[in-house]
Structures are given as structure tokens and as C-alpha cells.
Design goal:
The protein has about 180 residues and is mainly alpha-helical. The protein has one domain. About 70% of the residues lie in helices and about 0% in strands. It has 10 helices and no strands. The longest helix is centred in the N-terminal third of the chain and has 30 residues. The chain is globular.
């Protein structure tokens, strides 16, 4: 497996774990507010609304298929989820809901949000470089792996162990010439 393939596989796994954890919290938040689905209740800026509209369009095959929440969530890209944990949504989403997706992180909610965002930004950067076949050979792939396993460990300790065990990044990084 190449370094790029290892990065894409690892970050893809992290994306799904984080996405599902955030989605669970948003569903709970919407339910407390009396809404069936957070996709209709959440107050997003224009960029976020555009992302949701595109995801809905792709999930329904441009209106030819019934909308299902899970399909729409799966169509929302890594950038959407990273953006959702940004400072912009600290008071409106992070404090009342999203911080609960990372119970294993620091209890300080501001520091927790910054820690989560920093790791998501870093993982998105390396994933995008690998996906676009840009050079990643000088990156510290072990540090990228640590960001990944630490982040999913904040979601659930078993996720940390699982991602650490299945990721090929450690083997790839250790096999590279110095």
C-alpha cells in the first residue's frame, strides 16, 4: 500500500467515525428542540446551507429518490464536518451539542473545540494532498496517525484502538527510507 492510499484509508475511517458521532449529537439536539431532523432545524451560514442542499440533491439523485437522513449525511463532505466544529458555531452548536461527540477530550469546551478542529484541519489537509497526488513524502505520517487515533479516541476508546490497529500508516512510515 502506498503512503497516499494509507492516508486516504485512515482519514476516511476517521471521517465516518467523527461524522456519525456529530450526527448523533445533532439528532439529539434537534429532538430536544422539537424537530425531527437537524438538517431542517440547524442554522447554518450560506456555505453550510449550500453544502446541505448539494448533499440532499446527490442523496436523492436530483429528486428521483426519496430523501433519507443517512444518505444525506453520507453525502456531506469532510469539509462540512470540519467547518461545523469551527469557532463560528461555538455558541450555537458546539456548546449545546457537538462537544458531547468527544467525551474523551479535555473538559474545557473551548480547548476541546480547538483541539478537535485542529486535528480535523490537519487530517483534511493530508487527505486532500494524498487524494490529489500531491507530495506527502516529507510529512510526519506518524504524527498524522497520532492525530487520527487521538481524535477518534475522544469519540470512543475502542475507536482509538481499532483505527490504530487497522491503519497501515505506521507500517508505511516505518518502511520509508530516512
Amino acid at each position: 500500500m502506498s503512503a497516499g492510499s494509507g492516508v486516504i484509508a485512515t482519514t476516511g475511517t476517521v471521517e465516518v467515525i467523527v461524522r456519525n458521532a456529530l450526527d448523533r449529537q445533532l439528532l439529539s439536539w434537534a429532538d430536544r428542540k422539537g424537530h425531527r431532523d437537524w438538517l431542517d432545524a440547524i442554522r447554518l451560514d450560506q456555505r453550510g446551507r449550500d453544502d446541505v442542499a448539494k448533499a440532499r440533491s446527490r442523496a436523492t439523485l436530483r429528486g428521483r429518490r426519496q430523501e433519507e437522513h443517512g444518505r444525506v449525511v453520507a453525502e456531506l463532505g469532510f469539509g462540512f464536518w470540519r467547518y461545523l466544529v469551527s469557532q463560528r458555531y461555538h455558541a450555537s452548536l458546539w456548546v449545546p451539542s457537538l462537544h458531547k461527540a468527544f467525551p474523551g477530550a479535555t473538559p474545557d469546551l473551548r480547548a476541546r473545540r480547538r483541539d478537535v478542529e485542529r486535528r480535523l484541519v490537519n487530517l483534511m489537509l493530508v487527505r486532500n494532498r494524498a487524494a490529489h497526488h500531491e507530495p506527502i513524502h516529507r510529512r510526519d505520517l506518524l504524527a498524522d496517525l497520532e492525530d487520527a487515533v487521538e481524535l477518534v479516541g475522544w469519540v470512543h476508546p475502542e475507536a482509538r484502538a481499532w483505527v490504530g490497529a487497522i491503519s497501515a500508516l505506521r507500517q508505511i512510515a516505518n518502511a520509508r527510507p530516512a
